[in-house]
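Revision sheet: structure tokens.
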Amino acid sequence: MTHITAEDSPHGRHMGVTDVVMMIIQRIIGSGIFAVSSMIYRDVGGSPALFFLVWLISGYSSYAGIMCFSELGSVIPRSGGLKVFLQIIYNKPFMLINVVFGIFIVIFGSIIANVMIFGEYLLYALGYQDESIINKYFKLIGFIFLILVSILLLLSTKFIIKLQTFTGILKIILLLSVSIMGLSILILPNSITNIPNNLHYNDFFKIKTKVTISSFTSAILKGIFSFNGWHTIHNVLGEIKDPIKTMKLAAPLSIFLINLCYFLINLTYLIVIPSNELLEINEMIGLVLFEKFFGNSIGKIILSSLIAFSVGGNIITVLYHISRMNQEIFREGFLPFSKFFASNLPFGSPLPSLLIPVFITSLFLIIPTKSNIFNYTINLESYPTQIFFGLACFGILILRFRSPEIKPNIKASLIDIGFMILFSLFMFLGPIIKPDNTEFNGLPSYAFVSILILLLCMSYWLFMFKIFPKLFKYKLKRQEITLNDGMVINNWIHLPLSSDDRSYEPLV
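Predicted:
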């Protein structure tokens, strides 16, 4: 294998360090930090020491992951991220990983949960308290925002980048402001704040309720959920100015800023909210925090505004990434209507590939569905993704062995690589060895359904590249064609077995 040169995106290189840092922050920080901390605290038996240990491990997982992908990106500096990494590392059997991963991503490329959360909390932020009104209109509000963001994405990529950069900076400022409120309790006398400090050194290592290996593991999984999305920046690597130099700075800086915000906010939770309350909180812990500072009604409005703002920025970034990833998949040419879905017409942006996640998300918003089906689809997506993460990180070792002459400009440590491989293996085997379907009563195990979906994707590859050519006596040849908008895609030609046309790339 020779070193792969950078490939410019059809959309141009227009993102600098600040844009990349804010894009990573926007993608990772959603509503998780305002929801899971109380559940983590309960899982670790009310021990502040174990609580911060969980967040340390979770934070390290995001750092290890982005460093592994940054090494792959420095060797394979192209848009497409995980898709491109896997197809270059696992190039045999020919096109297998391309087809399996590509179909999976296109099917599950939606943002249902985030759109619903945005609609719900925007209504809370506007002062609506009646649950019947919330339940009636939150999907409609989410749908309107989805369409608005899609239109902006189509009209101006540069405007969207600047918008998400601006809102990302504002998000960091808002989160740090929340932290300052908590730290002020440590600094200012109680007579001024009227809120006692509930974090004391003599209780820091104390375990108040039972902790098991299972509960501690569950806490880590919840923490890692709050860092989800660190990998997606590599989907648009071809749109980053000087990608290796930029990622070398932007990757660790963005993860550091996120970890700093999470640490300070979690510290604020422990300072402001008494331990016995933390152990009993079932709703969003952020709501309790803001109610203590501002009162019940105002606190709920402020928190809801912050969550709606945070999730809204997340939706902008996710849609941007999904549209680019889908476009890269359709450029492979193995899916029906690839020429249409890979094109940038008529606005110079990936409108057709954006239509797919918008359609799938809208479908879930329109069709009446059980409430747990949304979390079920999230698990169907995240379970195979962990498998692909493990394969990609193991692929670093394969590339190092296969091409020792290549010296990556960004290099992950063996500890980073080992952690990601072992964690992905744990995430894969856990639901199979000890399945727990209590959350999804009446639905089959998401792990086995995910594996079945991957097997169906493999069947598509088997029929297209093996069975049909043999059955109907033709051979597949790959040809690169240029669309009217300048986009280069693959086109698969059926040639009779007797043909020896050298103008097409042979299937090998």
